[in-house]
Amino acid sequence: MSTEEMISVDYEIFGRVQGVFFRKYTQAEGKKLGLVGWVRNTEAGTVQGQLQGPSNKVRQMQDWLKSTGSPKSQIIKAEFKNEKNVKSLDHSTFKIVRP
C-alpha cells in the first residue's frame, strides 16, 4: 500500500504570464512530474488552474509555478488555495483549457 497522500490544490499566477507560453510550459512540467489537472488564461491577465497528484510532486510543481514558469514569464505572485486530500484524481491528464 502506498503511503503517499494525494492532494488537490487550486492556483493562480500573477505577473507577465500570458503570451509567454506559460500554459504550455505548465502543462509540460505537470506531465513530467506525473500530475494531472488543468491550466488556463483568465480575463484578468493571470493564469489559473488545478494540480492533483502525490503531495511531494504537487509541492515541486508549486515551487516551479512560484519561481520558474516559462522562460519569458515574470512571476510576481503565486496564490494557492482549496488544498485538500483526495482519494482519487478528478482528471486523467494535464490539459490546457481554452476559453
From TrEMBL:
Protein's name in the database: Acylphosphatase
Keywords tagged on the record: Hydrolase
Record domain Acylphosphatase-like: where: 8-98
Organism: Salvelinus namaycush
Entries under Gene3D superfamilies matching the protein: 3.30.70.100
GO molecular function: acylphosphatase activity
Reaction(s) the record says it catalyses: an acyl phosphate + H2O = a carboxylate + phosphate + H(+)
Keyword Hydrolase in annotation: yes
The EC number(s) this enzyme carries: 3.6.1.7
Record-linked PANTHER family: ACYLPHOSPHATASE (PTHR10029), ACYLPHOSPHATASE-1 (PTHR10029:SF21)
Similarity comment: family membership: Belongs to the acylphosphatase family.
Active site: 23, 41
Pfam name, any one: Acylphosphatase
Top-rank EC class of the record's enzyme: hydrolase
